[in-house]
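Severity: low
Component: inverse-folding endpoint
Summary: output formatting inconsistent between runs
Steps to reproduce: submit the following structure tokens with default settings.
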């Protein structure tokens, strides 16, 4: 099921994947280093109210952005949730609070330096706020507010005791809501050091403390003041070492806020985080031809071909970046790149280096000779060969500069023989393949690689269709 959806004044389209809950995803500032996705999840019928949630406005607060990522698994019976899982992805890649200064101090009267990319992001964030009935900004902060009042950790923060909704003209008691949520959440927290506190920073007053005075420039204050919507800062503590525990606490608070504002989830989000495992990148050339590149592979492409590294697939949905070394910026996903020389692409997840692959220009693309159900076929390197599960293939030959190469079907190992990484001249059946060696672990995509001694030279991909 596909739908077209108009999101603010920017023309954008989304795809929806599920029936009872609608899921839309869109990348903003695409083809720049500052690209970031926005996810919108809405109940099929009763789409009100709309809650906007930011994760990672500060780049060194994983509890916040990992929670936002988990929230994209939500299915809703009632309401809409707009999630920005990695607001400040550039700073997340660097694991710093704000690479271009503090983004959460740029919402009001911000005199930006001309080339400050945060300004472009904040402009989009404000447009998202304009669509929201409630706004939540997730953070991790130092310390524990209950122990030391100047610390922001383990705290729900509001800018004022009450807000008069611009939409309904009704008064919403932020202080009452905040205190009640804290009370309910604390009943579920076993460690007494981790109990939450409520804090009204009374942002509109003049404060002697510089950090409180600066709250006038934050996202929550902007949402409260300009859009007249209830806005909460939710802060877990950076002194809690486990990211999963921080996510758990964030989720406890959010579930209570959902209840207060009448958003009804269909499923329960668990705080467990999968280790980021890279599967492959999808690359497209100018003509729209698709290539799949797994880790440590060499993709041969024609000299002077223009390509785009489109989507990055892995065990995690968000946080991936592809960096073409020696070219572009830190995240070269969705940019157009001309192949003129040997290129290494580094794959990052958040601030971790995960793996890499190579793209080499080639005057002539070598071919594999294989047999499918007895019929000989020539498969160019880089090709995606579609097969049925009942097909039987035999790998016959691959050559480079006249030399015979070994061919390794990753995921196929002959029984009663040590796997020497050469699978030529044997019948390969789907049922004998080891799923855990497929690219995505599900037995759909496999890599067949030509090697000289142990060095990978080129490959093609087999895609098994059901
Ligand atoms: Zn923060």
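Observed output (run 2 of 3):
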């Amino acid at each position: 099921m596909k739908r077209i959806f108009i999101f603010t004044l920017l023309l954008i389209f989304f795809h929806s994947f599920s029936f009872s809950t609608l899921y839309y995803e869109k990348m903003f500032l695409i083809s720049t280093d500052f690209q970031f996705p926005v996810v919108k999840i809405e109940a099929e019928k009763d789409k009100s109210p709309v809650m906007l949630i930011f994760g990672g406005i500060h780049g060194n607060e994983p509890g916040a952005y990992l929670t936002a990522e988990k929230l994209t698994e939500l299915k809703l019976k009632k309401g809409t949730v707009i999630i920005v899982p990695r607001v400040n992805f550039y700073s997340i890649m660097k694991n710093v609070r704000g690479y271009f200064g503090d983004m959460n101090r740029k919402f009001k009267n911000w005199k930006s330096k001309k080339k400050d990319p945060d300004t472009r992001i904040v402009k989009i964030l404000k447009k998202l706020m304009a669509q929201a009935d409630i706004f939540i900004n997730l953070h991790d902060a130092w310390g524990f507010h209950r122990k030391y009042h100047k610390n922001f950790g383990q705290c729900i923060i509001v800018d004022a005791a009450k807000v008069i909704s611009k939409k309904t003209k009704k008064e919403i008691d932020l202080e009452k809501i905040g205190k009640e949520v804290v009370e309910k959440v604390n009943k579920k927290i076993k460690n007494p050091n981790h109990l939450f506190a409520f804090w009204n920073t009374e942002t509109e007053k003049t404060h002697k403390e510089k950090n409180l005075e600066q709250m006038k420039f934050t996202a929550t204050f902007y949402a409260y003041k300009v859009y007249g919507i209830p806005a909460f800062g939710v802060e877990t503590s950076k002194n809690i070492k486990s990211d999963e525990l921080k996510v758990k606490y964030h989720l406890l608070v959010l579930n209570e806020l959902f209840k207060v504002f009448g958003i009804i989830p269909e499923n329960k989000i668990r705080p467990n985080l999968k280790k980021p495992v890279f599967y492959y990148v999808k690359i497209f050339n100018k003509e729209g031809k698709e290539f799949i590149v797994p880790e440590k592979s060499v993709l041969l492409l024609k000299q002077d071909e223009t390509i785009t590294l489109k989507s990055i697939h892995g065990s995690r949905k968000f946080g991936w970046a592809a960096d073409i070394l020696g070219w572009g910026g830190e995240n070269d996903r969705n940019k157009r790149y001309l192949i003129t020389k040997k290129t290494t692409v580094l794959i990052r997840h958040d601030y971790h280096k995960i793996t890499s692959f190579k793209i080499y220009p080639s005057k002539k693309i070598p071919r594999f000779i294989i047999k499918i159900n007895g019929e000989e076929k020539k498969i160019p390197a880089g090709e995606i060969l579609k097969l049925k599960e009942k097909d039987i293939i035999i790998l016959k030959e691959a050559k480079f500069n006249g030399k015979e190469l070994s061919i390794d079907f990753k995921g196929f190992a002959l029984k009663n023989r040590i796997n020497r990484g050469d699978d030529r001249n044997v019948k390969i059946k789907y049922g004998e393949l080891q799923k855990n060696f497929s690219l995505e672990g599900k037995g759909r995509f496999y890599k067949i690689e030509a090697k000289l001694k142990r060095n990978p030279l080129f490959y093609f991909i087999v895609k098994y269709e059901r």
